[in-house]
Amino acid sequence: MLVLTDPGEVEGRADQRRALASRFARVEAYGLRRDGDGYPIGPSDAALADRRARLESIFREEHRRLAQLPGSLANRSVCALVSDQDGVILSLHDGVSFRDTATRVRLVEGADWSERARGVNAIGTAIAEQTPVAVIGPAHYELRNAGLFCYASPIFDPHGQLVAVLDVTGPMDRHDRGFELVVRTSAMSIERSLRAITYARAGFRNLGAIEHLVTRASAPTILVEPRGPVAIHNEAARRSLLSGRAFVDCETLFGMDFDTLARMAREGGEPRFETRDGSFRVKLDPLLDEGEHPFGIIVHFDPLARAPRAPVKALEPVKNEDLPTPFAEIFATDDAVVQSKQLAAKFAKTRLPMLLLAETGTGKELFARAIHAASECAGGPFIAVNCGAVASTLLESELFGYAPGAFTGAGRRGSDGLLGAANGGTLFLDEIAEMPAPLQASLLRALDDGSYRRLGDSRPRRSAFRLIGATYRDLGTMVEQGDFRSDLFFRLHGACIRIAPLRNRTDRLGLAQALLEKHHPPAPKLARSAVAYLEEHSWPGNVRELRNALAYAVALAGEGPIERHHLPERLVSSGSPTRTRTEVLREAAEEAVRASGGNISDAARKLGVARDTLYRMLKKK
């Protein structure tokens, strides 16, 4: 195995070899030898104490937790450690069975594991490349470390400075990719805590106060931080500046890094910012920590002489004939759904795994079948399975198949499983978030090289399939909580399509008419009372509920128009006044906010909507 620099991994062995060669070339410039037998001299006891004190001063409230992390991560066969930003190990916990090996390769407190001292290794390379790193077996530069696996993740403070590294190392016979997720999510958790503490010290009780300030602004407003994409933005900024993109960083947006923008904020002045929507005067409000150092900037874009709005290509109405036939069959005039169709049609031409984010009943399988039919896999099979509808004890044999006699009741010929059945085609895994962690690892392996093993079979098999996953759950949060593998998440998340729920669509009436024309020709007319209800109902069952309600109404209406009373009784309450869609949405929003203790972000996640949408729901009368 070679170096893995990212949970998504580098495609192809040739690319991995080039990455490894590049790293080796970088460290060879330090004059190191792969077969060297000496070790660099670490800092003195006094210097080591100073380094620990420096880290403690950075973390303050979080230092105890940071010091405890290695102990909570280590087990009897591996060691877990924290190093400082230079690669010097400050705290370490190791299991008894691994202690001799750890001592032999100098995995000890005070040892220097920077690349300059030890060549390519997870700690030093994570520092050099400032990203989570896995160094497996012979991908270590030093030959004496070829029997080790190492996972390391850098920890950055709210100013974007690397301040520590968290690492797990062990012998190859104990290698488990699960350590990667633990290390990465633990580092992310520490970073979130540091960020929250910094905001609190600056006078903000929590990020909700900043979110409120930004999202309620009428003009385009964003919050940028030293690392990562725009942290918070309002709807006006999403439309006019971000063009709907989720990951836009400071440099992409302004053509300068955060430090340069912070200097401009300190110097005052209001620079101009040009977009296709016109000219803006930019106001920069820096957020300062106790030492008067900026850790965030609220950017307000005040319109000047606004030019006529240029059409946004992605939001232009699209005729069905402008898309591949399979997508033209999905009715949509709502802008968000049209965008989803366009994006899905583009990704359909690739071999990328895809992820559909949508509630139950929105038409995920319809999208998946359209992607398959518009892809180069169209001549192969389309295999669909709902991971949430199959017992976890049976899902492994269902997906990966089983050898003859693998378990009581197994068929004499065994089974190739759904992966085998999908060879040459598309495998659609609905509710993929319900898949148990061990099966996630097996699925990732199959995505990497096409190989998988049937239950009870030692011989690997191969299947060339295109994966489409779907879920309504927040996979990002599940990754942070350790409920979903980060490596699988990053493989799927690259080609991500969101499908709007019916309650958020502006084409509900048109969709109802299209369903009537398709399934109940000649389509009956919709009376005014039915139209009013179709527009106001919240449709918790989405398109599936609408389709079934229309079928029910057609049966009752006969040859006449569909009236409101023809709709199913479960939709029209006879015992009390019918609540409008607006009332239902506002009530759901208020309940979610109460259940979240006033945390808007948490409430929005529970409802599966954006913060901006939740604010609109709360304001509806």
TrEMBL record:
Q: Where is the Sigma-54 factor interaction domain?
A: 330-555
Q: Which UniProt keywords apply?
A: ATP-binding, DNA-binding, Nucleotide-binding, Transcription, Transcription regulation
Q: Which InterPro entries match?
A: AAA+_ATPase, AAA_lid_NorR, GAF, GAF-like_dom_sf, Homeodomain-like_sf, HTH_Fis, P-loop_NTPase, Sigma_54_int
- Which chain positions lie within coiled-coil regions? none
* Highest taxon, organism lineage: Bacteria
Q: Tell me yes or no: is Nucleotide-binding among this UniProt entry's keywords.
A: yes
Gene3D superfamilies linked to this entry = 1.10.8.60, 3.30.450.40, Homeodomain-like, P-loop containing nucleotide triphosphate hydrolases
Please name the Pfam families in this protein's record.
Answer: AAA_lid_14 (PF25601), GAF (PF01590), HTH_8 (PF02954), Sigma54_activat (PF00158)
Q: What is this protein called?
A: Sigma 54-interacting transcriptional regulator
